[in-house]
Here is the input.
Amino acid sequence: MEQYVIKGGNPLVGEVEIGGAKNAALAILAAAVMTDDTVLIENVPDVRDTNVMLQAMESIGVRVERIDRHTVKITAKNVNGHVIEDDYIKKIRASYYLIGALLGKYKKAEVSLPGGCNIGSRPIDQHLKGFRALGAKVDIAHGMIIAQADDLKGNHIYLDVVSVGATINVMLASVMAQGVTIIENAAKEPHVVDVANFLNSMGANIKGAGTDVIRVRGVETLHGTEYAIIPDQIEAGTFMFAAAITKGDVTVKNVIPKHLESISAKLLEIGCEIEESDDAVRVVASKPLSHTHVKTLPYPGFPTDMQPQITVALALSNGTSIVTESIFENRFKYVDELTRMGANIKVEGNTAIINGVSKYTGAGITAPDLRAGAALVLAGLSAEGFTTVDDIRYIERGYEDFDIKLKSLGALIEKVDSARDLQKFKLRVG
Ligand code: UD1
Here is the structure.
């Protein structure tokens, strides 16, 4: 089984190129089935989740042509079904976007109930409420979500919780509905805006994405387009925290600094220096880190997908910090692993009380999910001695070439799949 082996202690230094946003890509790829014309999408990250999405699309006759590692051409003219029961698709959360996209275009969809990271109960009631409000009949049977409609009609939909997935899914389903749909209490994440921009470039009429009220005027058809996905806010944030945690100096390139403001603000608070330019952010950690409090919130608040990474940094900071997770109720499972590396963290409900320690010590640990897995790798990079990280398939769901990018910044990390390779790495780096 593949694992990462890390020898900690090297500060990360240098520049790293950030890829396209995974969570925007997943919705945009699904949305590409909504036209019969060919769509060219650039800056698609080559990660497991996007590849699973493309594979699921191919299973219903969508033509996927890879132009290069990050560019795909999608033609959905010959879609020959609306049932997606692929074994892999169950494992990714964003499979639900195929329901909105297929329902919106073909008025019917049958997709396996979504999986994704185990970070707490992840209901999709708001998605289903939105589809029903547009006139669809929605049932759950035999592990499938079955949605169908004679006609979809615009409606006024108030989301009970701020949900990225439900906002995007209702946008997808309503884009070709008759009349006007108003989504209130909409999520404002950069990828919601990116999906709206993509749909508009195909001829949709969506206004207000990025605010909490989105207005969709239905159009008859959508046409082909060429579109480049925005940079990944969370990949960028992870490398920014890698600089803080390893006392390094890292510049993340090809980013939109505005999307990183809540992350930069916390890094400043804990004593890092930040330099911003048009499409890059440099993080320098030359002083000991200091404590702070943070609560995860919908955008523009501090992202829940950065919660494990900031916790790993705060557990190495002077003093006591408090991290409150307000989006997912079970997102501190990785804390047990971090404790095995020497962290002093007490979790009570959705709050972690952290007493900073001066260092981590290497250990054999397991990635419990995507973002926590990446955060534990960062802990390993700063730890004394060797750390092995198991279940790296979680990390590979959302980070392209994570180990290779870290190596380019001076990290001693290797992906190995045998005890022999592990030993070789240990002998090589001493
Ligand atoms: C997306 C991201 C995920 C990120 C999360 C929050 C993708 C593929 N995943 O997940 O990485 O952590 O946004 O930024 O883009 N909720 C309901 N009912 C619903 C939908 C959501 O109660 O129908 C709740 C959830 O349990 C959670 C909160 O709303 O407490 C926010 O979830 P949501 O924004 O929908 O997250 P996802 O779209 O699943």
User: Anything to note?
Assistant: The mean pLDDT is 95.
